[in-house]
Amino acid sequence: MKSNNPSAISLRGVSRRFGQPANIFKRAQRSLKRLRGVPVRNDVVFAVNNVDFDVMQGEVVGLVGESGCGKSTLARLAAGILPPSEGKVLFRGTDLRTLDRAEMKDVKLKIQLIFQNPHASLNPRLRAADIVGEAPLCHGLVSRADYESYVDTQFLRAGLDPKLKRRYPHQFSGGQRQRLGIARALAVQPEVLVCDEAVAALDVSIQAQILNLFMELRSQFSLTYLFISHDLGVVEHLADRVAVMYLGRIIEEAPVEELFSRAQHPYTQALLAERPSIEGRGRRFVAIKGELPSPLNPPTGCHFHPRCPLAMPRCAQEAPQLREIAPNHRSACHLNDTA
User: Fold this and answer.
1) What is the pLDDT of residues 97-129, one digit of tens each?
2) Could you give all domains of the chain from N- to C-terminal order, each with its CATH number?
C-alpha cells in the first residue's frame, strides 16, 4: 500500500502454522494407518497464510474479520511475540530475524500489545504501580529515585488517578483495568501499539472513553496503531485504513472511506451489509451463508467460495491474488478479472 510515510511494520509472505502435538495413542494410531497404507493427515492449522501487509508510521490500520480468522495471531506476529513459520517481519525495514538479542529487546519495547481481556492480561499479585513501573525500571528507562513520579505520570496519561496505584487489578473496574493495560504499554515509550480487540469486553460508554483516549494519545505521542476488532463501527471511527481478513488471508485493503463506500470483495460487502444502522431500520437481516470453515481443512482455491453468492468454478480451484484494483485499494477476488 503506497504512502508518503515510511513503513513501521511490514509482513512479507508471512505464514504461521500450529501443529497439534501427538500423544502416544495418536502416534500409535498413525503408525497402524501407515502400515495399512491408509493416508495420514497431519493436524496443522494455517492461522496466517502468506500475508503481505504494511503498517505505515503515524497511521491507524484497522484489521477486521470473523472470530477465528487469524487476527490475533497476526497481531502477535506483528508485535514480535510469535515468530513466523514462513516469511519475514520487518520493523522500519529491518528483518527481525537479523537482529541480535539487545536489538530485539529494543524492538519489542517499541511495539507494545494491548490485550482483549484486561483482567487476564494483568498479574493479579502485583499492585498497579508495579504493573506499570516494573518494565521501565528493569530496562533502565527510569531510575529508582524517579520511579514514583514516573508511574504517576503514566497513570495520568491513561486517565487514572495516581492515588489508585497501590490497588490490585481486581479492585479496578473493567474500564480502569483496560486503562491500566494502556498505561503499562505507554510506560516503555513505544512507537507502535497493537490493540487486539482492546475494547470488545467493555460497555459501550466505556468503549467510547477508551477510543477517545487512543485518539488523544495518538496526537500527543505520534503513535502508530494496528487496531484489531470485529466491530466495524469502531474501526470506521478510528482507522485511516482497513484490512479485511478471512481464514488466514488478507482479502481486501483500502482507506476507510473507500472501503466503507465501495467495498469490492463479496465477503467485505456481506460484513458491511450485516452492520446495524439507523438508516437500515425495517430492513431484513441476512447473515452470511454458512459458517467459517475449519482452518484444519480449509476449502481449496478461494477460501470464501463455499459461502460466496457470486462464486464461479474457477474460485474452487485457484486462489485469487491480492492486487491493486484502484489507487490504494487492493482486493483478492476473481471478479476483478471479469470486470
Assistant:
1) 999 989 999 999 999 999 888 888 899 999 999
2) 7-20+41-260 (3.40.50.300)
